[in-house]
Write a structure and sequence with these properties.
Blueprint: E1 30-41, E2 50-57, E3 61-66, E4 75-79, H1 81-84, E5 87-98, E6 105-111, E7 116-117, H2 132-159
Antiparallel strand pairs: 1-2, 1-4, 2-3, 3-6, 4-5, 5-6, 5-7
């Protein structure tokens, strides 16, 4: 009896549905062939860049090939000067399939945020400030502390 193989789609958990690529491209793709590096995000103690080949790109994503599959939902910073226009860009894997020729994978990345200038100074989020009453209280304690130190020094100096 011959063995036949039937491909049955696996049920998809509703939480993963937004991560799956159903070719919902809204931007025109530009064909492009270049080497690039993906750095896992968030980075670990020793992030190892992944060398990939970009096949096309748009304002909202990148198509690439790589010798291994990547996990859907995994995030990367992409380093390639033409595609990212010299900025730091964060992307998420939305599509990954083995290519018919074997050995390579076709991977789709979607931009997660607006590109930022790679050389811009880092600006941490502002912490909530102190109100005027708290600032005045700190000032009063500082003046009282300084006065105590000065008076103690004068009294000790007079005794000797």
């Amino acid at each position: 009896m011959p063995i036949t193989q039937t491909v049955v789609p696996l049920p998809v958990h509703p939480a993963l549905a937004p991560l799956l690529d159903t070719d919902r491209r809204t931007q025109p793709r530009t064909q492009y062939h270049a080497s690039a590096q993906l750095v896992p995000y968030p980075t670990g103690k020793h992030p190892k860049p992944i060398d990939v080949t970009i096949t096309d790109y748009s304002d909202s994503g990148i198509g690439l090939t790589y010798s291994e599959g990547l996990l859907i939902g995994q995030s990367f910073v992409v380093h390639e000067p033409t595609v990212t226009r010299g900025k730091t860009c964060l992307y998420r894997v939305v599509h990954c399939e083995a290519m018919a020729d074997g050995g390579m994978f076709r991977i789709g990345l979607a931009a997660m945020e607006e590109p930022r200038d790679e050389w811009a100074p880092f600006e941490p989020k502002k912490m909530p400030g102190l109100d005027l009453g708290t600032k005045l209280l700190y000032l009063i304690f500082a003046i009282a502390g300084a006065a105590t130190i000065v008076l103690t020094a004068i009294l000790v100096h007079r005794r000797h």
